[in-house]
Amino acid sequence: MSTYQQRFEGLLGALRAALQPGEQFTLGYSAEHSQFVRFNHAQVRQAGVVSQASVQLRLVSDGRQAEQQITLGDDAELDRQRLYEALAQLRQTLPLLALDPYLSLDQNAWRSDSLQQQPLPELDEVLAGVAHEAGQLDLVGIYAAGPICRGFASSFGAFGWHQANSFNFDFSLFHSNGQAVKANYAGQQWSSDAFAARLRQAREQLQHLGRAPITLKPGSYRAYLAPAAMDEIAGMLCWGGFSAQALATGNSALQRLYSGDAQLSPLVSFSEQVSGSLSPAFSDEGSPRRDLRLIVEGQAQERLVSARSAAEFELAANGADSYESPCALSLAPGDLPSAQVLERLGTGLYISNLWYLNYSDLPAARMTGLTRFATFWVENGQIQGPVSTMRFDDSLYSLLGSQLEALTCEREMILSTSTYSQRSTGSSHLPGALVRGLTLTL
User: In this protein, which residues make up the domain named Metalloprotease TldD/E C-terminal (predicted)?
Assistant: First the structure.
């Protein structure tokens, strides 16, 4: 048992002992011990370690609920005292609250344990790899690595523990003309060869950025969207696209798909692949998660249903978090080998990344954004030069529907780079996509 889990179970025991008749609780736990290194010109500019932990206590009684987050330290007795104080404050707050009509608690005594302790690379190995492969390149980026822990327990006997090691190196290579190639290498098992290959690919793209930029007129162009570009599109879908609450209230970009009024290409199958991912197999609301088939061969299937949405809209909960967004989104691969992408593209756009995406027409699933990083014009399977930053505006029903020609056999596992308040456990597993037409507007 890890030290983190021991601390969590110590607080859990103290809370159970302090509970009064008629009270129920849920206790969520988050912790990390992360090493951060910031690079500039391929040299270390800032390094540090973040070690933090907190619990989210929810007290329930007589149809009312209230919750409070508590920051933890290294003193177990002080942490228990903070927990008792929070419990007392919640007891005072509950009688002042109205009844919660959609309060729904999982009263099953389930248990889930996951300990993914693959050895992380020594920092010296990472730094040596960057120095050897980047050389005199202007590499700018952030490396983050270490264990992330999530825990959950309830007064009904539920208990979940998740601890996983991971690393994430998010970096860009800048050309002297100010253009940049954005890249990422992340996972749970560091490979010097795989990192070198990823950096080599970015270095090759950097050389193309030295050519004269090509300006295109607005219009529809044949295009290849690399996995990182697909990740931006998939990320937009996570903004309520698969949410039961958003679908029930008409606020989902996939409303037409789930109502049966539209469909995507038969090549498209999205799933929530929790098993084997970095995300815990239980939600922040205290329900076991399972893998979900969200879209199968272009047709809508399951949706993400939290306990609250289940109560409000008379649905069956399936372990979704309260915000009903995928935590491990996966798009099934296709049959296009990555080595043949330029040949199959022929003449068109090679798009490494998309940037600043937003919805221009939510009901139509129409998105807009910029090409920005390492977008190239290709003729007869050969890169001719970088394309000046342009804005695209197109519908998902076109990009992953009528205009989708192929998906790559190889997929990229992309871990979330978010460190807002804590490192994220979110991920996506995505292929690249070849489309017959992508609309550029300016």
Answer: 218-440
Residue 250 shares a structural domain with residue 396: yes
Q: How confident is the model at residue 1 (pLDDT cuts 50, 70, 90)?
A: low
- Tokens (6 digits) for 356: 């600043």
What does each C-alpha distance from 281 to 167, 232, 309, 338 come to in angstroms?
A: 20, 24, 19, 32
Helix (H, G, I), strand (E, B) or coil at 12: helix
- Please tell me the chain's helix, strand, coil percentages from 3-state DSSP, rounded to the nearest 5: 25, 40, 35
pLDDT digits (tens, 9 = 90+) for 276-300: 899 999 998 889 999 999 999 999 9
pTM, two decimals, is: 0.94
In a domain, 213, yes or no: no
- CA 173, 174, 176: angle at the middle one, nearest 5? 145
What are the DSSP E strand ranges found in 380-419?
A: 382-386, 391-395, 404-415
Return d(Cα 207, Cα 284) in angstroms, integer.
46
Q: Is residue 98 part of a domain?
A: yes
Residue finishing a domain among 152, 182, 207: 207
Residue 253 falls inside a structural domain = yes
CATH number of domain containing 41: 3.30.2290.10
Domain span at residue 150? 3-207
